[in-house]
């Protein structure tokens, strides 16, 4: 038992490190938007288009990776996704035009999108439905931490080395980790942690078909979470992407100040993600239907806190000083924590209403809806900035999309508990059927002898 626990921790640690570095690729561009626009003579709208296509193309390709995840070795698929994501990120540094820059960023998005269904499929087989909340929180933390690291690397080095070097710094580490993954990472048996299978000690067997995609959206929890993923990630696409530029343009901060302020906001996001995952798991054990309901409440509260951030009367170097800077940062910290509570609970809900054979595909679809929202959010944020004349007004408009997200989460509270119990009942029945098949096969072998 102790050896199994160590192996689980080792796999989670690997996934955490890989996702941190991959997600650093995703947000490394944000602090250097102004430098890139100046060099290539482009606008926020062009940058928004890069971010939008980056997310959407990667998510579309991840549908294929999701299908492959449910059929083939996830270890080797993970190695492939790293290569697909990190090599183009490295080559972004040699872009000589906006067209080349656009091309390399889109390829990087494909690698990031591919890693998503693989990671959550592995987690679903490592942990039971009562344990997944905190583990999903850890993976969500990796995504947030990676985004922060990407921004910090660019924010603190670009003034010295220019905008190109940060793309090299965030992509190289994962390439160095690949030999370690190949030699150390062990893939868990599918379905090993499901109710019935974990007790009976029998193997989960299945057949993967392309036609199964249509059945996934018949699970009402899936459908509602897909829809909220689109609505909820429009602000998640726009706000972090343009946040540092917002601080620079409209709050008169220099790049280092803007990066530090973003760090305060990002720390709030980390706290919200961790608290959300661990608290959500405790709530789940007491009342499953309260998981989406509490997430809905925190999401709606987060909207108004976030809007207050964009309206906060702070201007660097005028009369605010260090206390004003810290007050502004604490407001952003609380808003980001509230906004981030929902993320790990949504992923835990998806794991707990879908069979092991479907999890790669379900997370590839969720990544699609999630990334469509993120991509649209980046494009909308850039376009609204041009249309409205200020980034603050544009980002405030995108924040209101979280209200739709909260409403859809409330609706999912009607179905989530019922569909969890239905899946657990089905898995126990499949385990019993499989156990009987094993017993009958052994009896037949003994009779032949």
Largest sheet: none
Helix content: over 70%
Mean pLDDT across the residues is 82
Helical stretch count?
A: 18
Q: What share of the residues does DSSP label as strand, in percent?
A: under 5%
Order of helices and strands: HHHHHHHHHHHHHHHHHH
Measured on Cα atoms, how large is the radius of gyration? Answer: 23 Å
Low-pLDDT stretches: none
The shape, in one word, is globular
Head-to-tail CA distance between termini: 36 Å
Structural class: mainly alpha
Q: Write down how many β-strands occur, each being a DSSP E stretch of 2 or more residues.
A: 0
Description:
With 449 residues, the protein is mainly alpha-helical. Helix content is 82%, strand content 0%. α1 (2-27) runs parallel beside α6, α1 (2-27) packs antiparallel against α7 and α12 packs antiparallel against α13 (321-340). The mean pLDDT is 82.
Provide tags for this entry:
18 helices
């Amino acid at each position: 038992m102790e050896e199994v626990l160590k192996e689980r921790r080792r796999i989670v640690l690997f996934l955490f490190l890989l996702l941190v570095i991959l997600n650093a690729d995703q947000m490394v561009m944000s602090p250097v938007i102004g430098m890139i626009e100046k060099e290539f003579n482009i606008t926020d709208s062009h940058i928004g288009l890069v971010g939008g296509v980056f997310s959407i193309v990667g998510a579309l390709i991840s549908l294929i990776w999701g299908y492959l995840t449910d059929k083939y070795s996830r270890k080797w698929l993970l190695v492939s996704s790293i290569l697909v994501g990190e090599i183009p990120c490295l080559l972004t540094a040699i872009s000589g035009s906006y067209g080349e820059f656009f091309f390399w960023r889109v390829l990087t998005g494909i690698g990031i999108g591919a890693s998503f269904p693989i990671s959550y499929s592995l987690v679903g087989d490592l942990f039971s439905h009562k344990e997944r909340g905190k583990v999903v929180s850890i993976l969500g933390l990796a995504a947030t931490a990676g985004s922060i690291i990407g921004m910090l690397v660019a924010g603190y080095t670009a003034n010295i080395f220019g905008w190109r070097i940060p793309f090299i710094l965030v992509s190289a580490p994962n390439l160095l980790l690949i030999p370690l993954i190949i030699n150390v990472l062990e893939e868990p048996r599918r379905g090993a942690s499901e109710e019935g299978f974990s007790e009976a000690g029998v193997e989960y067997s299945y057949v993967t078909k392309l036609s199964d995609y249509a059945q996934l959206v018949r699970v009402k929890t899936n459908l509602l979470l897909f829809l909220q993923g689109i609505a909820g990630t429009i602000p998640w696409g726009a706000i972090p992407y343009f946040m540092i530029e917002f601080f620079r343009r409209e709050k008169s901060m220099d790049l280092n100040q803007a990066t530090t302020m973003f760090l305060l906001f990002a720390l709030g996001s980390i706290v919200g993600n961790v608290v959300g995952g661990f608290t959500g798991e405790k709530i789940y054990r007491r009342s499953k239907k309260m998981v989406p309901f509490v997430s809905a409440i925190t999401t709606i509260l987060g909207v108004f806190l976030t809007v207050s951030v964009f309206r906060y009367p702070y201007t660097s170097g005028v009369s605010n000083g260090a206390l004003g800077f810290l007050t502004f940062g604490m407001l952003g910290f609380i808003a980001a924590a509230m906004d981030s509570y929902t993320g790990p609970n949504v992923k835990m809900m998806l794991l707990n209403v879908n069979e092991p054979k479907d999890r790669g595909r379900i997370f590839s679809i969720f990544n699609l809806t999630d990334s469509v929202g993120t991509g649209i959010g980046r494009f909308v944020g850039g376009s609204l900035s041009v249309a409205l004349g200020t980034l603050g007004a544009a980002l405030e408009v995108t924040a209101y999309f979280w209200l739709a997200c909260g409403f859809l989460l409330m609706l999912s509270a009607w179905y989530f508990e019922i569909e969890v119990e239905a899946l657990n009942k089905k898995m126990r029945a499949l385990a019993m059927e499989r156990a009987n098949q094993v017993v009958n096969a052994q009896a037949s072998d003994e009779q032949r002898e």
